[in-house]
Model the fold of this input.
Amino acid sequence: MADEPIIEVKDLVAGYEDTVILQDINFEVRRGEVFAVLGGSGSGKTTLLKNMIGLQKPLRGVILIDGTDVVAAEGEERLRVLKKIGVAYQSGALFGSMSVLTNVALPLEEFTDLPRRAIDMIAQMKLKAVGLQGAAYKMPSELSGGMRKRAAIARALAMDPKILFLDEPSAGLDPITSAQLDELILQLSRDLQITFVIVTHELPSILTVADRVIMVDKDARTVIATGTPQELRDQSANPVVRRFFNRQLGRDVRIDNG
Amino acid sequence: MEDTDKAAFDFRPGDHGQARLILKGRLDRDTTASIWRDSTQVVRQARIPRLVVQAGEVVYCDGAGVALLAEYKHIQREHGGQIEIQGLRPQFEQLMAVLEIDHLVAPPKPAGTITSFIRHAGFVLNLGQWTAGFVRSMGTETSFTGEVFAKLLKALTHPRGLRWKETLIIAEKAGANAVAITGLLGFLIGTILAFQTVAAMRQFGAEVFVADLVVIVLFRELGPLITAVLLTSRTGSAFAAELGTMKVNEEIDALTTMGLDPVQFLVLPRIIAVIGVIPLLTMFNMLMGLVGCGLVMVSWDIPGAIFMDRIRYAATLTDLFGGLAKTFVFGTLVAGIGCLRGLQTGVGPTAVGDSTTRAVVSGLIAIIVADGVFAVVYYFLGI
Done:
């Protein structure tokens, strides 16, 4: 059960019209794991994310989510796939004119027949899970950066997704807030058995939360390394991977080594 | 055999103040909706001292299912009853432990005892709030007007301090790019005015005087007014949106911290540009209005020469310049209000839209009021 793939990406070529950004992409995300896509700025990791969540059509290739081809799915079938996934965007993308609670309740209002009280209750439960129940009636503009990210995760959780995609969850957060977010991801993964796909360039949080990592590179335009974050850090022979890890973790590595 | 794709419940009252609620099937966001109302109503009405929820046959449970179980608990707690949930599978129990909440956070009340007292007299409250808001906004507008005029005078006496290149670009957008629409409006207004009046005037054999009527109306009132209304909706709204977006993006703050004055840097070029182009646009509007009028007259068999003669006889330079003088005031109002509303933009995604709306509404009101004042002043001056 645990090793069964929930996302399969096969021979993916992604980009815009005649510009190929990524090619030869093949990987699987296993059910229940925390999977990270790592890469520097401009490496195409956000393009990969957009392809996986159906915001952008790949130039070639197949992406299966829970057995359904996201690329080919249309209408009802596409909606069914979309209900299985939740996405928390880098900026939070909360609707600024609605309270935090209404943001979380919106998909439930639109897609279910649950009565008002049930919707409020579920929305507040999801907010409690990210530690924001007290902020239910605040407006997004009243929240701090970290709270906005957590509210975005609560909204992504509203429909009980099987897979949660997070785009740069710790970007722009201080180390302490970032660590709290890592803790939240681990807790949700453990308690709700949600599969996480995290797109990021922040190494410290990847080393804490990710079970497996792939790294994409701007020059190679493809996946240059796969494995656990520790394997990539300690064993990779690829100079780009080594540079990426050493540069970002320079201080941490020295502390680790005593 | 029960259908495991659906949710079902069975309420069985028993002895000694105890009852059983048997839940079966899937409790997900779709199926839970079907039993939420009925099952909670049954539990609420029964007021059972001890409720046993048997959840052994629940095959799936997500956030919605947990919410339903939590709702039973809330109902029981409300009337002091007990509840026990039996047989829930471990993974669902764990989900419940993560998600369950003790209470719903209530929406904040717009409280304050005085406010809640007055809420019953909502009209009084609204009137008071509106008046206070109006007085406050009049204050802001007065101080903004003063600031703009002081800086405008300074800019005109020290023209080097102004960003002329920017001013010319704005003038091109607000003026040159608006020539076609202004001309079209003028032409149509001239045509319509002439057409509507010529038939009535003919009954008295006075159709040649249509030219007098149209030229006076266009020069003194409609030309300046229509051009100003067009500029409000086209340029005033654009100013509010531009400055509002800059405010939201903290660009105005960036200017201020760089030591640059937003009024000097952003507002003055816009006001000067609009004041520069509005008389030209108005004249173009008037000219096209006369062309439209002339065409209608010619089509009613009145020779063009007579039409030209009537215009020359009826309209004086005072009419023309009286009308054009207004446009300077209209232009200042349109640009000033557009910029002010932009700078007043609040936060949130609707803020820019709100500012734009307010810029157009208050711009239109200001123009009409100013036009009324002009009418009275011109009357007493004998213009």
